[in-house]
Design goal:
By secondary structure, this protein is α/β, with parallel strands linked by helices. It has helices at residues 2-9, 48-77, 81-89, 147-150, 160-168, 182-195, 209-212, 227-232, 261-264, 270-277, 281-294, 298-310, 320-352, 365-372, 380-389, 396-404, 411-418, 425-442, and strands at 95-98, 102-105, 108-110, 119-121, 141-145, 173-174, 200-206, 241-245, 250-254, 356-362, 393-395.
Protein backbone atom coordinates (compact mmCIF):
# COMPACT_ATOMS: atom_id res chain seq x y z
CA UNK A 1 0.00 0.00 0.00
CA UNK A 2 2.75 2.45 0.94
CA UNK A 3 4.44 1.93 -2.42
CA UNK A 4 1.19 3.04 -4.05
CA UNK A 5 1.22 6.26 -2.00
CA UNK A 6 4.81 6.98 -3.00
CA UNK A 7 4.27 6.24 -6.67
CA UNK A 8 1.28 8.60 -6.77
CA UNK A 9 3.25 11.29 -4.96
CA UNK A 10 6.00 11.06 -7.59
CA UNK A 11 3.54 11.77 -10.40
CA UNK A 12 3.85 15.60 -10.20
CA UNK A 13 5.29 17.60 -13.15
CA UNK A 14 6.28 20.83 -14.92
CA UNK A 15 7.04 23.69 -17.29
CA UNK A 16 6.94 25.52 -20.77
CA UNK A 17 8.03 28.62 -22.76
CA UNK A 18 6.76 32.10 -23.56
CA UNK A 19 4.15 32.25 -26.28
CA UNK A 20 1.39 34.49 -25.13
CA UNK A 21 1.84 36.47 -21.96
CA UNK A 22 -0.42 38.41 -19.65
CA UNK A 23 1.33 39.76 -16.58
CA UNK A 24 -0.43 40.58 -13.34
CA UNK A 25 1.24 42.81 -10.74
CA UNK A 26 0.03 42.00 -7.25
CA UNK A 27 2.40 44.25 -5.37
CA UNK A 28 3.09 47.90 -6.06
CA UNK A 29 6.56 47.71 -4.53
CA UNK A 30 7.66 44.39 -6.04
CA UNK A 31 10.97 44.32 -7.93
CA UNK A 32 10.94 42.21 -11.04
CA UNK A 33 14.64 42.53 -11.82
CA UNK A 34 17.24 40.03 -10.56
CA UNK A 35 19.40 41.02 -7.62
CA UNK A 36 23.15 41.43 -7.97
CA UNK A 37 25.05 38.18 -7.56
CA UNK A 38 26.24 37.49 -4.03
CA UNK A 39 29.99 37.00 -3.49
CA UNK A 40 31.13 33.41 -4.06
CA UNK A 41 31.31 31.29 -0.93
CA UNK A 42 34.69 30.50 0.68
CA UNK A 43 36.41 33.44 -0.98
CA UNK A 44 39.74 34.20 0.72
CA UNK A 45 41.32 37.64 1.30
CA UNK A 46 43.11 38.88 -1.82
CA UNK A 47 41.69 36.05 -3.95
CA UNK A 48 38.71 37.82 -5.50
CA UNK A 49 40.02 37.88 -9.08
CA UNK A 50 41.43 34.36 -9.18
CA UNK A 51 38.54 32.79 -7.32
CA UNK A 52 36.01 34.74 -9.40
CA UNK A 53 37.62 33.46 -12.61
CA UNK A 54 37.72 29.92 -11.27
CA UNK A 55 34.08 30.13 -10.18
CA UNK A 56 33.07 31.42 -13.61
CA UNK A 57 34.77 28.46 -15.27
CA UNK A 58 33.13 26.04 -12.85
CA UNK A 59 29.73 27.65 -13.40
CA UNK A 60 30.16 27.37 -17.17
CA UNK A 61 31.07 23.69 -16.85
CA UNK A 62 28.11 23.12 -14.52
CA UNK A 63 25.73 24.85 -16.96
CA UNK A 64 27.06 22.67 -19.79
CA UNK A 65 26.47 19.52 -17.74
CA UNK A 66 22.89 20.62 -16.95
CA UNK A 67 22.20 21.43 -20.62
CA UNK A 68 23.44 17.98 -21.66
CA UNK A 69 21.27 16.35 -19.00
CA UNK A 70 18.24 18.27 -20.21
CA UNK A 71 18.90 17.17 -23.79
CA UNK A 72 19.22 13.50 -22.84
CA UNK A 73 16.19 13.67 -20.56
CA UNK A 74 13.90 15.21 -23.17
CA UNK A 75 15.24 12.91 -25.88
CA UNK A 76 13.96 9.97 -23.85
CA UNK A 77 10.42 11.31 -23.39
CA UNK A 78 9.51 13.05 -26.66
CA UNK A 79 6.53 11.55 -28.45
CA UNK A 80 6.57 9.17 -31.36
CA UNK A 81 4.35 10.01 -34.38
CA UNK A 82 2.20 7.02 -33.44
CA UNK A 83 1.61 8.46 -29.97
CA UNK A 84 0.56 11.81 -31.48
CA UNK A 85 -2.00 10.13 -33.74
CA UNK A 86 -3.44 8.29 -30.75
CA UNK A 87 -3.89 11.59 -28.93
CA UNK A 88 -5.61 13.14 -31.91
CA UNK A 89 -7.97 10.17 -32.31
CA UNK A 90 -8.33 9.30 -28.64
CA UNK A 91 -7.44 5.76 -29.66
CA UNK A 92 -7.21 3.40 -26.70
CA UNK A 93 -7.28 6.31 -24.24
CA UNK A 94 -9.76 8.05 -21.99
CA UNK A 95 -8.56 11.40 -23.34
CA UNK A 96 -8.47 13.14 -26.70
CA UNK A 97 -6.49 16.22 -27.73
CA UNK A 98 -8.16 19.59 -27.16
CA UNK A 99 -6.90 22.88 -28.59
CA UNK A 100 -7.46 24.97 -25.47
CA UNK A 101 -7.38 22.60 -22.50
CA UNK A 102 -4.75 20.19 -23.82
CA UNK A 103 -7.12 17.22 -23.55
CA UNK A 104 -10.71 16.33 -22.73
CA UNK A 105 -12.48 13.01 -22.16
CA UNK A 106 -14.60 10.98 -24.51
CA UNK A 107 -17.17 8.25 -23.97
CA UNK A 108 -15.89 4.79 -23.10
CA UNK A 109 -15.80 1.88 -20.67
CA UNK A 110 -12.76 0.91 -18.64
CA UNK A 111 -12.07 -2.00 -16.30
CA UNK A 112 -10.71 0.31 -13.61
CA UNK A 113 -13.42 0.09 -10.95
CA UNK A 114 -13.54 -1.51 -7.54
CA UNK A 115 -12.65 -5.20 -7.68
CA UNK A 116 -11.86 -4.89 -11.39
CA UNK A 117 -15.40 -3.77 -12.24
CA UNK A 118 -16.01 -1.99 -15.55
CA UNK A 119 -16.65 1.76 -15.13
CA UNK A 120 -18.86 3.59 -17.63
CA UNK A 121 -17.93 7.10 -18.74
CA UNK A 122 -20.49 9.12 -20.72
CA UNK A 123 -20.65 12.85 -21.53
CA UNK A 124 -23.32 15.26 -22.73
CA UNK A 125 -23.05 17.75 -25.57
CA UNK A 126 -21.23 20.27 -23.35
CA UNK A 127 -18.55 17.78 -22.35
CA UNK A 128 -19.91 17.42 -18.81
CA UNK A 129 -20.15 13.91 -17.42
CA UNK A 130 -23.64 12.48 -17.86
CA UNK A 131 -26.06 13.56 -15.14
CA UNK A 132 -28.27 10.79 -13.76
CA UNK A 133 -30.25 12.17 -10.81
CA UNK A 134 -32.77 14.93 -11.63
CA UNK A 135 -31.15 15.47 -15.02
CA UNK A 136 -34.40 16.93 -16.40
CA UNK A 137 -34.40 19.74 -13.82
CA UNK A 138 -32.66 23.16 -14.05
CA UNK A 139 -29.09 23.00 -12.73
CA UNK A 140 -27.71 25.71 -10.43
CA UNK A 141 -24.45 23.98 -9.35
CA UNK A 142 -21.43 23.40 -11.62
CA UNK A 143 -18.33 21.56 -10.42
CA UNK A 144 -14.77 21.92 -11.74
CA UNK A 145 -11.53 20.09 -11.01
CA UNK A 146 -9.41 17.09 -11.94
CA UNK A 147 -10.00 13.32 -11.72
CA UNK A 148 -11.35 13.61 -8.16
CA UNK A 149 -14.03 15.87 -9.59
CA UNK A 150 -14.50 13.83 -12.77
CA UNK A 151 -14.60 10.78 -10.45
CA UNK A 152 -12.28 8.34 -12.18
CA UNK A 153 -12.77 4.65 -11.41
CA UNK A 154 -16.51 4.83 -10.71
CA UNK A 155 -19.44 4.77 -13.14
CA UNK A 156 -21.58 7.78 -14.01
CA UNK A 157 -24.14 7.28 -11.25
CA UNK A 158 -21.55 6.64 -8.51
CA UNK A 159 -19.82 10.04 -8.45
CA UNK A 160 -19.98 12.33 -5.44
CA UNK A 161 -21.99 14.78 -7.56
CA UNK A 162 -24.67 12.14 -8.10
CA UNK A 163 -24.70 11.26 -4.40
CA UNK A 164 -25.17 14.95 -3.61
CA UNK A 165 -27.82 15.36 -6.32
CA UNK A 166 -29.81 12.42 -5.01
CA UNK A 167 -29.67 13.79 -1.46
CA UNK A 168 -30.51 17.39 -2.38
CA UNK A 169 -33.13 16.43 -5.01
CA UNK A 170 -31.57 18.63 -7.68
CA UNK A 171 -28.96 18.07 -10.43
CA UNK A 172 -25.25 18.87 -10.19
CA UNK A 173 -23.13 19.24 -13.32
CA UNK A 174 -19.67 17.62 -13.45
CA UNK A 175 -17.02 19.43 -15.53
CA UNK A 176 -14.06 17.60 -13.97
CA UNK A 177 -11.21 16.52 -16.24
CA UNK A 178 -8.56 14.01 -15.17
CA UNK A 179 -5.06 15.44 -14.79
CA UNK A 180 -6.17 19.07 -14.84
CA UNK A 181 -4.49 21.79 -12.82
CA UNK A 182 -5.96 24.63 -10.79
CA UNK A 183 -5.27 26.86 -13.79
CA UNK A 184 -7.01 24.51 -16.22
CA UNK A 185 -10.10 24.25 -14.03
CA UNK A 186 -10.20 28.07 -13.94
CA UNK A 187 -10.03 28.19 -17.75
CA UNK A 188 -12.73 25.56 -18.09
CA UNK A 189 -14.90 27.49 -15.66
CA UNK A 190 -14.59 30.60 -17.86
CA UNK A 191 -15.46 28.53 -20.92
CA UNK A 192 -18.43 26.61 -19.54
CA UNK A 193 -19.98 29.39 -17.45
CA UNK A 194 -20.42 31.35 -20.66
CA UNK A 195 -22.43 28.50 -22.22
CA UNK A 196 -24.08 26.77 -19.24
CA UNK A 197 -23.89 29.19 -16.31
CA UNK A 198 -24.70 28.23 -12.74
CA UNK A 199 -25.13 30.46 -9.72
CA UNK A 200 -23.04 28.16 -7.53
CA UNK A 201 -19.60 26.79 -8.35
CA UNK A 202 -17.62 24.07 -6.61
CA UNK A 203 -13.85 24.16 -7.27
CA UNK A 204 -12.41 20.82 -6.19
CA UNK A 205 -8.65 21.28 -5.72
CA UNK A 206 -6.58 18.10 -5.31
CA UNK A 207 -3.06 17.87 -3.83
CA UNK A 208 -1.26 17.67 -7.17
CA UNK A 209 -3.32 20.37 -8.89
CA UNK A 210 -1.22 23.17 -7.39
CA UNK A 211 1.91 21.76 -9.02
CA UNK A 212 0.23 21.02 -12.35
CA UNK A 213 -0.47 24.73 -12.89
CA UNK A 214 3.25 25.30 -13.57
CA UNK A 215 3.77 22.16 -15.72
CA UNK A 216 3.25 23.16 -19.32
CA UNK A 217 3.74 19.50 -20.21
CA UNK A 218 2.67 16.71 -17.88
CA UNK A 219 4.92 14.23 -19.70
CA UNK A 220 8.12 15.70 -18.25
CA UNK A 221 8.20 13.94 -14.84
CA UNK A 222 7.50 10.55 -16.38
CA UNK A 223 11.12 10.66 -17.49
CA UNK A 224 12.45 9.83 -14.03
CA UNK A 225 11.50 6.21 -14.64
CA UNK A 226 13.09 3.60 -16.86
CA UNK A 227 12.79 4.28 -20.58
CA UNK A 228 10.85 1.03 -21.10
CA UNK A 229 8.18 2.29 -18.70
CA UNK A 230 8.13 5.72 -20.33
CA UNK A 231 7.35 4.37 -23.80
CA UNK A 232 4.43 2.36 -22.46
CA UNK A 233 3.14 5.05 -20.09
CA UNK A 234 0.14 7.19 -20.84
CA UNK A 235 1.46 10.73 -21.20
CA UNK A 236 -0.70 13.73 -21.92
CA UNK A 237 -0.20 16.50 -24.48
CA UNK A 238 1.08 19.96 -23.50
CA UNK A 239 -1.37 22.16 -21.62
CA UNK A 240 -2.06 25.80 -20.71
CA UNK A 241 0.03 26.87 -17.73
CA UNK A 242 1.34 29.78 -15.66
CA UNK A 243 4.88 31.02 -15.17
CA UNK A 244 5.34 32.43 -11.68
CA UNK A 245 7.92 33.80 -9.28
CA UNK A 246 6.79 34.50 -5.70
CA UNK A 247 9.82 36.71 -5.09
CA UNK A 248 8.96 39.17 -7.86
CA UNK A 249 5.19 38.52 -7.79
CA UNK A 250 5.39 37.51 -11.45
CA UNK A 251 2.33 35.71 -12.82
CA UNK A 252 2.19 35.06 -16.57
CA UNK A 253 -0.50 33.03 -18.31
CA UNK A 254 0.40 30.81 -21.27
CA UNK A 255 -1.93 29.24 -23.79
CA UNK A 256 -1.57 25.58 -24.74
CA UNK A 257 1.63 25.34 -26.77
CA UNK A 258 0.24 22.60 -29.05
CA UNK A 259 -3.23 23.86 -29.92
CA UNK A 260 -3.34 22.30 -33.43
CA UNK A 261 -2.50 18.85 -34.82
CA UNK A 262 0.46 20.41 -36.65
CA UNK A 263 1.85 21.90 -33.44
CA UNK A 264 1.23 18.68 -31.54
CA UNK A 265 3.37 16.86 -34.10
CA UNK A 266 6.21 19.22 -33.12
CA UNK A 267 6.47 17.14 -29.94
CA UNK A 268 8.38 14.54 -31.99
CA UNK A 269 11.16 17.07 -32.75
CA UNK A 270 13.86 17.15 -30.05
CA UNK A 271 15.20 20.57 -31.04
CA UNK A 272 11.72 22.10 -30.94
CA UNK A 273 11.00 20.50 -27.57
CA UNK A 274 14.36 21.74 -26.25
CA UNK A 275 13.69 25.27 -27.42
CA UNK A 276 10.33 25.37 -25.66
CA UNK A 277 10.90 23.31 -22.51
CA UNK A 278 14.56 23.57 -21.49
CA UNK A 279 13.91 26.41 -18.99
CA UNK A 280 11.03 24.67 -17.24
CA UNK A 281 11.17 25.07 -13.46
CA UNK A 282 9.70 21.61 -12.98
CA UNK A 283 12.20 20.03 -15.36
CA UNK A 284 15.06 21.40 -13.29
CA UNK A 285 13.48 20.14 -10.08
CA UNK A 286 13.01 16.67 -11.53
CA UNK A 287 16.54 16.56 -12.87
CA UNK A 288 17.75 17.31 -9.35
CA UNK A 289 15.64 14.44 -8.02
CA UNK A 290 16.96 12.16 -10.74
CA UNK A 291 20.55 13.08 -9.90
CA UNK A 292 19.90 12.30 -6.24
CA UNK A 293 18.51 8.92 -7.25
CA UNK A 294 21.51 8.21 -9.50
CA UNK A 295 24.03 9.23 -6.84
CA UNK A 296 25.24 12.31 -8.77
CA UNK A 297 23.57 15.17 -6.83
CA UNK A 298 26.54 17.51 -7.45
CA UNK A 299 25.42 17.85 -11.07
CA UNK A 300 22.41 19.85 -9.86
CA UNK A 301 23.94 21.84 -6.98
CA UNK A 302 24.72 25.01 -8.95
CA UNK A 303 21.53 24.90 -10.98
CA UNK A 304 19.23 24.57 -7.96
CA UNK A 305 21.22 27.19 -6.04
CA UNK A 306 20.63 29.61 -8.93
CA UNK A 307 16.95 28.65 -9.18
CA UNK A 308 16.47 29.09 -5.43
CA UNK A 309 18.10 32.53 -5.49
CA UNK A 310 15.93 33.57 -8.43
CA UNK A 311 12.80 32.55 -6.49
CA UNK A 312 13.82 34.08 -3.18
CA UNK A 313 14.48 30.79 -1.37
CA UNK A 314 17.50 30.78 0.91
CA UNK A 315 19.68 27.84 -0.04
CA UNK A 316 22.80 26.20 1.33
CA UNK A 317 23.29 23.09 -0.79
CA UNK A 318 26.20 20.78 -0.02
CA UNK A 319 24.49 17.40 0.26
CA UNK A 320 21.86 15.29 -1.51
CA UNK A 321 19.46 15.92 1.36
CA UNK A 322 19.84 19.69 1.09
CA UNK A 323 19.45 19.51 -2.70
CA UNK A 324 16.16 17.63 -2.44
CA UNK A 325 14.85 19.88 0.32
CA UNK A 326 15.69 23.15 -1.46
CA UNK A 327 14.33 21.95 -4.82
CA UNK A 328 11.05 21.00 -3.15
CA UNK A 329 10.82 24.35 -1.34
CA UNK A 330 11.20 26.20 -4.65
CA UNK A 331 8.60 23.95 -6.28
CA UNK A 332 6.16 24.34 -3.36
CA UNK A 333 6.52 28.11 -3.21
CA UNK A 334 5.90 28.57 -6.94
CA UNK A 335 2.97 26.14 -7.03
CA UNK A 336 1.06 27.48 -4.03
CA UNK A 337 1.71 31.08 -5.10
CA UNK A 338 0.16 30.18 -8.48
CA UNK A 339 -2.93 28.68 -6.80
CA UNK A 340 -3.41 31.73 -4.62
CA UNK A 341 -3.34 34.06 -7.62
CA UNK A 342 -5.72 31.79 -9.57
CA UNK A 343 -8.19 31.68 -6.68
CA UNK A 344 -8.13 35.48 -6.65
CA UNK A 345 -9.02 35.38 -10.37
CA UNK A 346 -11.85 32.93 -9.66
CA UNK A 347 -13.20 35.23 -6.95
CA UNK A 348 -12.99 38.25 -9.24
CA UNK A 349 -14.93 36.37 -11.93
CA UNK A 350 -17.54 35.23 -9.39
CA UNK A 351 -18.03 38.74 -8.00
CA UNK A 352 -18.55 40.20 -11.47
CA UNK A 353 -21.07 37.50 -12.42
CA UNK A 354 -23.02 37.18 -9.14
CA UNK A 355 -21.77 33.66 -8.42
CA UNK A 356 -20.77 31.99 -5.18
CA UNK A 357 -17.83 29.59 -4.94
CA UNK A 358 -17.20 26.71 -2.55
CA UNK A 359 -13.67 25.26 -2.55
CA UNK A 360 -13.26 21.55 -1.81
CA UNK A 361 -9.78 20.25 -0.95
CA UNK A 362 -9.05 16.62 -1.89
CA UNK A 363 -5.81 14.70 -1.37
CA UNK A 364 -3.52 12.02 -2.72
CA UNK A 365 -3.36 8.77 -0.79
CA UNK A 366 0.21 9.70 0.17
CA UNK A 367 -0.76 13.08 1.62
CA UNK A 368 -3.71 11.63 3.52
CA UNK A 369 -1.63 8.76 4.92
CA UNK A 370 1.07 11.23 6.03
CA UNK A 371 -1.55 13.39 7.76
CA UNK A 372 -3.15 10.43 9.52
CA UNK A 373 0.31 9.36 10.70
CA UNK A 374 0.82 12.76 12.32
CA UNK A 375 3.18 14.24 9.73
CA UNK A 376 1.17 17.43 9.12
CA UNK A 377 -0.07 18.81 5.81
CA UNK A 378 1.89 19.99 2.77
CA UNK A 379 -0.66 22.65 1.77
CA UNK A 380 -0.73 24.63 5.03
CA UNK A 381 0.26 27.85 3.28
CA UNK A 382 -2.70 27.51 0.88
CA UNK A 383 -5.18 26.69 3.66
CA UNK A 384 -3.88 29.71 5.59
CA UNK A 385 -4.51 31.80 2.47
CA UNK A 386 -8.14 30.60 2.25
CA UNK A 387 -8.61 31.40 5.95
CA UNK A 388 -7.09 34.87 5.58
CA UNK A 389 -9.38 35.62 2.64
CA UNK A 390 -12.40 34.27 4.51
CA UNK A 391 -13.26 31.93 1.63
CA UNK A 392 -15.58 28.95 2.27
CA UNK A 393 -13.91 25.56 1.84
CA UNK A 394 -14.28 21.89 2.71
CA UNK A 395 -11.15 20.31 4.20
CA UNK A 396 -11.42 16.58 3.46
CA UNK A 397 -8.04 16.01 5.13
CA UNK A 398 -9.52 17.14 8.42
CA UNK A 399 -12.76 15.27 7.70
CA UNK A 400 -10.83 12.03 7.11
CA UNK A 401 -8.84 12.62 10.29
CA UNK A 402 -12.02 12.90 12.33
CA UNK A 403 -13.51 9.87 10.58
CA UNK A 404 -10.39 7.73 11.04
CA UNK A 405 -10.45 8.44 14.77
CA UNK A 406 -13.71 6.46 14.95
CA UNK A 407 -11.92 3.25 13.88
CA UNK A 408 -9.44 0.91 15.57
CA UNK A 409 -7.67 -0.06 12.36
CA UNK A 410 -4.33 0.74 10.73
CA UNK A 411 -3.92 3.71 8.40
CA UNK A 412 -3.44 1.32 5.49
CA UNK A 413 -6.70 -0.46 6.28
CA UNK A 414 -8.48 2.86 6.65
CA UNK A 415 -7.23 3.99 3.24
CA UNK A 416 -8.47 0.74 1.70
CA UNK A 417 -12.00 1.65 2.78
CA UNK A 418 -12.12 4.66 0.47
CA UNK A 419 -9.35 4.51 -2.15
CA UNK A 420 -8.56 2.35 -5.17
CA UNK A 421 -6.12 4.95 -6.46
CA UNK A 422 -9.00 7.43 -6.72
CA UNK A 423 -12.02 7.29 -4.45
CA UNK A 424 -14.02 4.07 -4.71
CA UNK A 425 -17.86 4.38 -4.52
CA UNK A 426 -17.71 4.64 -0.71
CA UNK A 427 -15.04 7.33 -1.00
CA UNK A 428 -17.35 9.32 -3.26
CA UNK A 429 -20.12 9.01 -0.67
CA UNK A 430 -17.64 10.24 1.96
CA UNK A 431 -16.74 13.32 -0.12
CA UNK A 432 -20.40 14.10 -0.85
CA UNK A 433 -21.36 14.07 2.81
CA UNK A 434 -18.32 16.17 3.74
CA UNK A 435 -19.64 18.79 1.30
CA UNK A 436 -23.35 18.77 2.21
CA UNK A 437 -23.46 21.15 5.18
CA UNK A 438 -21.28 24.00 3.83
CA UNK A 439 -23.01 23.70 0.43
CA UNK A 440 -26.52 23.80 1.92
CA UNK A 441 -25.51 26.77 4.09
CA UNK A 442 -24.57 28.60 0.88
CA UNK A 443 -27.59 27.68 -1.27
CA UNK A 444 -30.58 30.03 -1.48
CA UNK A 445 -33.28 28.96 -1.72
CA UNK A 446 -32.48 25.81 0.20
CA UNK A 447 -32.82 22.43 -1.54
CA UNK A 448 -36.21 20.83 -1.02
CA UNK A 449 -34.71 18.41 1.51
CA UNK A 450 -33.68 21.35 3.72
CA UNK A 451 -36.76 23.58 3.54
CA UNK A 452 -38.62 23.96 6.80
Amino acid sequence: MKSVYLSMFCCLALGLPDLFQVQFAYSSDSKAGPEADAPPRHRGVGEAGAVGSKNSMESARSAKVVEQQIREYLKNIIYTPERIEKWLLGEGMKDIHDAKMGWVHHTGTWADGIGGAISTYNYDDTGARRMVAYADQPCRINTYGNSFTHCDQVSDGESWQEVLATHLCEPIRNYGLSGHSVYQMYLRMLQEEEKNPAEYIIMNIYSDDHYRSVYGWAGIPTGVHDIEIIRGAQKRPPMPWVDVNPKTHMFIEHENLCSTPELLHKMTDLEWVLENFRDSLVLRVYLARKNIRLGTPEKSYDDIRALAKEHGVEADIDSPEELGEVAQRVYDAASFFASERIVEMVEEFAAKNNKKVLYVLSYTMYDLAAYLNGEGRVDKVFVDFLDEKGLPYVDTLKAHGEDCAQFKISVDDYMDRYYIGHYNPLGNVFQAFAIIKPLVDMLEPKPVTYRR
